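Annotated sample (chain length 256).
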Amino acid sequence: MKSTPARSPRLILGFVAALVLASAPTRAAQSYPEPAGADTAGFVPIFDGKTLTGWDADPKYWRVQDGMLVGVVTPETLLKANTFAIWRGGAPADFELKVEYRITAGGNSGINYRSVEIPTPAFALKGYQCDIDGANRHTGNNYEERGRTFLAVRGQIVRAAEGSKRAIIGTLGEKDPLATFVKKDDWNQVHLIIRGNVFTHLVNGHVMSVVIDEDPVARAAAGLIGVQVHVGPPMKVEYRNFLLKTLPAVTPAPAK
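Output written by the structure step:
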């Protein structure tokens, strides 16, 4: 009787390896994020570019012209208090808002959200604001109008805690280099992403500030949207292409 020749260790190891590979789960091919392009899915216009339908504002300071919502302060109409054009179509909670603006060099404006209207003066809002100014000292900041003031300066990731305490927990870059992404005397796009208690401000596709609001007393869960003309010298600000996308509600985690 002939004996069976012994298999080599190399052959046995190869056979075992093949069995292991055959039984292993198939890994998905790696993929990477891609540019969003126009990114308009789910967005709806909230300004018709022809009338103030759906908006409320003092006609002394706001008008519709050439498809734009225009705010103007002249030497004869200098303000004693900031005034807003207020969207009356709802009080969004979680949403994304895209809008383009152009502002004069000495102008000061902002886009309010999750805000409340106060009784006096007329057309005044209290709440979160994406700051805008012609000199780009403040553009992209998160400023709470008639509230806690600066929640985050451009370049900061901030956690706001109970008692109006605010702590910088990260950085998005230095304030002045980020300002170079904002065009002066030209059109810029603001993109706000407001979900739960996290508020992200982008300008021209660059993240300018992020606030995580963990103050259970001061934070707001929903509210009005409005755009501002500010107390100060004569100015002009133009807004166009307001696009709003409502998002599923996110319940913020309880403050620690």
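Annotation: Residues 9-23 form the longest helix (15 residues).
Annotation: The chain has two helices and 17 strands.
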